[in-house]
Every structure is written in structure tokens, then in C-alpha cells.
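task queued by scheduler; priority normal; single chain, no ligands, no partner chains; default sampling; output format set to C-alpha cells
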Amino acid sequence: MDVRVGAGAPPDPFLGAADLLATEHDLDRPVRVRVRDDPDERTWTAHYDDHHVLNISRQAATSAMARELALHELAHMVRYEQGHASHTQSTDEALFLALSGRDVERRKLTHCYQIANHMRDIYADDITLSVAPAAKLVQFLESQLAAAVADAPGPGPTGAAADSRRVSVGADPDITAVNAAFALALVERHGLIDAEHRLYDLARAAAADAPTVGMETFKRLFRTLGEDPSESDFRRDLVTATREYALDAGRAAD
């Protein structure tokens, strides 16, 4: 596996992530790591005909989670090269099918893209959790959710989107509840915590702050995503999740 790290970050976390991934998977295309100055960017992956790019903030690249974040992005690259439906299905197409003819506020539309990212993250983390210990990821999910819950102004459409790997100032209670659902779905899908874990308390607090969002519904949807869906299956699941959030959040949840 060809991984080349640009200036601004130590190479060890990225090479270590590649070594972990190589125990079960390989990448046909080389990986270029680009370090960004914006600390809010976290990590994301871009795919090209002849290589992948792992973008990461300098802050994340030098953090204690650098190897785990890199491994997660490498797992996305594996899914892309596999042609996995979660990474080939167009989000724009699914959202158009789900919301055609409906008026949806920009905030909720932005959150629908984040929900699609969560669904892809489930499949990427199915790989990461097959090759690496889970303890640091669980701690990371807990700390991120705790920060979002503490920062939430209470029920209502305020703040900006935040995901399991990015928490914005003034975290929006609605998407924080979905983030909580994602965190619980991931750890339950892999049997990583017991019923007394603090994540459950945090998730209940997040759900209480967003009473119109079906946190349990989203947890069930994320947790039960099929291992190897067809594009039709994944598109159906994404349409369902989009409608649940954008169109059904106004009714009483769960």
C-alpha cells in the first residue's frame, strides 16, 4: 500500500493505519495525505482516477486520534474501490427522490447530507473495527457527544451541523440526536459497550433536547444496515432516513 504524507504531520500515524488495514485489506490506488491548517476540517477523502487523497487538519494529524482517523478514511477508500453501494450511490439522487416536490429548510437539507455520511461511516467502520481495537473510538464518540450535548442550546433549530467526527459551536439539538443514534448504532452493531455505558445517558439527554427527532428510529436504521446492499437497497435506506428526518421530524418521535 502506497501512502505518502505531505509536510506538516508526522508520518507514523498514517503508516501505522496503513499497516493495520493491510492485515485484512489492500488499496490498488496510492494515497496522498494532505495536511490542512483549518482545525475544523477534521478528515475527509477524495477519490481520483489514479489516486486517493486523505485530507486532514494539522490539529487532527498531530492528535492522539490521528491513527484512528486515518484508518477510518482508508476504510472509506477500500469501500470506494470495492464499488460498495454506500460509496457509489449518489446522495443528490437519493435526496431528490426523497424530497421532490417538498419544501425543506436549508438547515434540514444540510443535515440530510450528514445523515448520508453517517450511513457511509457505518460501512467504513465495519472495516476499521475488524482490524483495530475499539477502545479509543468509543472514547472519542463519547467525548464528541458529551461536548455536543453540553453545547446544545436546547430544543429548536439553532446552531450548525455536527457529526460524529465534527462538533460545531452551538451544536444543533436535532442533528446531535441523530449523531447520538449513530454512535449507539455503531457500538451496538459491534457489541462494544454494555447497557450501563455513559453513551446511553448522553444519548438520552440528546434525545430529550430534540423531542421531534426519533433517536431510537435512527439508531435502529443505522444499526441494521445490510452488510452488502445493492444500490437499490442503499438508495431505499437513504430515502427512508431522509424522509424520516426532513419530513417526519415534526411529529412526536418514537
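post-processing summary
- The CA atoms of residues 43 and 69 lie 7 Å apart.
- The radius of gyration is 18 Å.
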